[in-house]
Design brief:
Layout (H helix, E strand, L loop, with lengths): L1 E9 L10 E10 L2 E10 L8 H7 L3 H4 L5 H12 L3 E4 L2 H14 L6 H4 L1 E4 H8 L7 H7 L12 H15 L43 H17 L10
Parallel strand pairs: 1-4, 4-5
Antiparallel strand pairs: 1-2, 2-3
Helix pairs in contact: 6-9
């Protein structure tokens, strides 16, 4: 399954008032693992940036004057996301801006026409009703390090959202069990903390069985994911 985690920064909050995108960041996941493929652009919005928005993302008109306009990157963005499931926090906001920019650039159709969409804010609200479900709150809840988030940034926030989404929808985002023939982990594996075993050393695998309560909790999460994806999850398919 191919997913694109997407985030934007804008000149203001109201797309209906002609506000524009100043930064867009996307990262690719395939089968719940980051592939290293990214789409990241700063953009010249061709208009002023609201003071409140600049305070959030730290980008000024002077910073963006030499950057491309959205129309120059629209086709490339469309090709990058087409056919994937978009994972977005508060999807109506970002989709509204991207669709408006696409229309302005002469690209027909909306992202929802070429991609499935998973709104992690809606998912979080169902999983944690009555609690704060901002990206910062979810980072804290799922122990995702957001200490570098002095300002909001589209690519940084896409990476944070990817970690939150993977933790929220089943965890094990960084778990790699595959071993090479010589017993050493592959170069792309996460290095565990502490001493590494010697090459060829025997490795004991500890198997823990889920309790009845844990199995019930797991099934409730799968129910939520099924509902959020309109039944397109693969975990229960035989």
């Amino acid at each position: 399954m191919r997913q694109i985690v997407l985030d934007t920064e804008t000149t203001g909050l109201e797309v209906e008032q002609g506000h524009r995108i100043v930064e867009i960041g996307c990262i690719e996941l395939v089968n719940r693992r980051a592939t290293g493929r990214e789409f990241h652009r700063y953009l010249n919005p061709e208009r002023e940036i609201d003071e409140g928005a600049q305070a959030v993302h730290g980008l000024s008109q002077a910073d963006l004057r030499a950057q491309p306009r959205f129309a120059e990157i629209a086709a490339e963005l469309r090709a990058f996301v087409e056919g994937a499931e978009l994972v977005i926090h508060n999807a109506p906001f970002d989709l509204g801006f991207v669709n408006a920019e696409m229309a302005r650039a002469g690209q027909t159709g909306k992202l929802e026409d070429i991609c499935r969409v998973l709104d992690t804010l809606s998912l979080a609200r169902r999983m944690h009703p009555g609690q704060r479900n901002s990206l910062d709150a979810l980072c804290k809840r799922y122990a995702v390090d957001n200490s570098r988030r002095d300002y909001h940034g589209a690519l940084l926030d896409a990476h944070l959202l990817a970690d939150v989404y993977l933790a929220m929808s089943g965890g094990q985002a960084h778990l790699t069990l595959g071993l090479q023939a010589d017993g050493e982990t592959g170069a792309a594996d996460e290095a565990p903390s502490g001493p590494r075993p010697r090459a060829g050393a025997a490795r004991a695998l500890l198997v823990r069985c889920a309790s009845g309560a844990e199995i019930e909790a797991h099934e409730r999460i799968l129910d939520l994911l099924d509902k959020a994806s309109a039944g397109r999850t693969v975990w229960r398919r035989t």
